[in-house]
Structure formats: C-alpha cells, structure tokens
Write a structure and sequence with these properties.
The chain is α/β, with parallel strands linked by helices. It contains 13 helices and 20 strands. The chain has 2 domains: 6-179, Rossmann fold, CATH 3.40.50.1950; 188-392, Rossmann fold (3-Layer(aba) Sandwich), CATH 3.40.50.10300. Helix 1 runs parallel beside helix 2 (48-55) and helix 3 packs across helix 5.
Amino acid sequence: MLSGKNILIGITGGIAAYKICELIRMFKRANANVRVICTPNALNFVTKLTLQNLSQNDVGIEEFELKEFKPEHISYADEADIMVIAPATANTISKLANGICDNLLTSIACAFRKQIIIAPAMNFGMWENKFIQENIQKLQNAGRIILEPESGYLACGYEGKGRLCKLETIFDKTVEVLKTEKNLSGKKIVITCGGTIEEIDSVRYISNYSSGKMGIALADAAYAQGADVILISTVNVIKPYRVEKVKSANEMQIAVEGEQNSADCIIMAAAVADYRAKNIANHKLKKTKEDEITIELVKNPDILKGLCEKRTSNSQIIVGFCAESEDLIKNAKEKILNKGCDYLIANDISRKDIGFSSDFNEVTILDRNGGIKQLPRAAKTEIAKEILKEIYG
Ligand code: PMT
C-alpha cells in the first residue's frame, strides 16, 4: 500500500513512545521505508536498538552526529514524503509552534516542507492548558494535521483527555495524505477570501460577515493537491503557502491583477464590497447636532469582471462565487453571463447553517456551457475538494 513512500517518524519523550514500535511495524508491513528520529528524552521510554531493528534504519537523535557531509536536518527532511510526530509532548508541541529548534527532531520539523501529522499525548491538565491549546491552534492554522488525543485512563493515574489516539488513526491519516493525488502540481492558483474593509474615517468602516473560511478551505485543498497557492486575504492567517494580506476592494484588485498573468486559475471567494465611502476622513468624524447624516458611496471596481475581460490566455480558469439571499439559481445564471467567468459557485447566504462564517456550505456549481451541479450541505473543507474536482477533474 505504501510502497516507495518514505515516512519519517519523530518520537518525543512521553510514555506512549512504546506504542510507536507497533506503528513502525504497521508502516513496514505496508511496505513503506521508515526512518525514526527521537528526542533524547524519548530514549527514557524506548531504546534506540528496538527502533533501529523495527525500522531497519539508523535512528537519528543527536543533531551534530554527522555521518556524511550533509546537515542531518536537511537530509532527513529532503528524503521523507511525510513526517509523523507521535507521541508529541506538550514541550515539543510548544517548540514546533514557535519555531524553536533545539534538537534534531525540532530542527527537522522546522525545515520540513511537506505535511506533518502530530499526535499529542500528555496529562489532561497539560492538554487543557491555555498555552498548549494556543500552540495547537497555531500549528493547525499553519496547515499541520493534529490528531487529537483520546479520553480515558492516563499513565499518570488520572482519567481525562490526553491518551495518544489509536495507532490505526495515525496510520489511516498518513495513508490518506500520501494517497492524495498531487494532480495540481505545477499549477498556480490564486484565491481570494474574507470580506473587504472599506474605511469611512480613521475608526469606522463598512464590511460584511465573511470569515474567509470558504477561501481558506479552497487554498488548503489546492495546496494539499500540490498547487502553488497564493491566498489574497482580508483575514490574518499563517499558512505553509503564500498569504497576501489586503484590506479594501482596491487593494484586493491590485493584488489579484498583479498575479493574473502567471496564474492558471483564479478563484474569487472573497465577499467584495460593491461600494466604498467617496471620501475617507483621516480623523474620527465628530457627532453632529443632526439626527441623520449621509455618507456618500461610490462604486468599487468589479474585480471578477475585470479579470475576465483582461484574461490573455484561453487556458486560464476564472471562478467566481455568487452570494444570494433569494432566487439563487436565476440570479447565478445571470451573474455568470454578466461576469464572464468559467465557473460560478452559488450559495444561499440567507441560511444560518451554511454560507457566511459557517464551517459548512451547500453550493450549486454553474459552468459557462450551462452545466449545473448541486453539492449537498457538507463541511467547507469537503466542498472545497469537490469544487477543485469539478474544475480539474
Ligand atoms: O468567508 P466565509 O465566511 O467562509 O463565507 C463564504 C462566502 C459566503 C463569503 C463565499 O462562499 C461567497 O459567496 N463569496 C462571494 C461573496 C460575494 O461577494 O458575492 P457576490 O455575488 O456579491 O459577488 C459575485 C462575485 O464577484 C464574487 O466572486 C465576488 O468575489 C466578486 N466581486 C464582487 C463585487 C466586486 N466589486 N468585485 C468582485 O470581484
């Protein structure tokens, strides 16, 4: 099943380290080539000789124990198709989240450019600790896969959440990541996300409820499939791919158009404000005696339409989204013609269980030839994969 795949297992100093001996055997039985690195503390729970025999490879522990003229952390990172850190202690998790490289394992993880699966295991109090949870969140935001620990009896004598997840869970997730086809490799995909922010004065602005989740899900899915992703975002996110932060529709337009010529595909998932204040005061506007005031608005550029008009190559795919609260399909049919894009993803933003800010969506994909495909309600992460499948087959 994993023939030809190189799996790098990182073991840290927790009691669950002994369980990883069986995980190595599972990967070996699936014909993977397994290399193991340990933190020095891991050797308090499992021996180097055991890991060496099971993996049938040298086990890396010391950073400066060079066997050849190649920095160890770079060569391990270069060879592997995936890195699995299990068990991951609170200590190592915190180092990974903050870029600390004080041993071979943390240095390799920092240099690693492919996917890292992290399976934490620790005392339940440590797992619930605010700083550990923040670090877990940081790693997730950066695209790392966290396999949450399970609840039950812990080696420290307490009951709670902290046990290493099942080895089958780690094995299955590793297979899933390795089997995800890199069919978008070599493609440059530009994706916008979030609601634009149109300033009124130095403290007030016009915006909308877009969280950026839909665009981020698309960017993550495209990246997982090997694409060169550029996310143009109004929300702050840390990702393993390039993220360009913008605020207003004008800034977004400059950023997207700057990438257009070299892009194979552009997906406009952002909720772009149609209007902005005509004049932006550079100070806080004072309350007046009037009960009513008027803010003059002017039209923003239609970024999507502009991209479709300016496209120079027929092979460039341009995808728009369509947010409607009524007559979804009728409006979407008109919008795809008006904008001139290849695909339009229509979603009903009047529903609370999908659309703006939700983790879920339900969409209808329209294509320029009149084709219509409905996707049932699902997590945005799943909808994103389906949209990419529709575009690239
Ligand atoms: O971010 P989330 O919380 O996950 O929510 C996701 C979403 C609901 C924002 C997303 O799924 C979505 O529907 N995005 C498009 C929102 C929108 O602006 O729709 P629209 O129908 O007003 O615009 C149609 C298309 O034109 C969109 O691709 C939009 O990016 C683009 N547009 C709109 C106005 C404008 N001035 N320039 C544009 O490029």
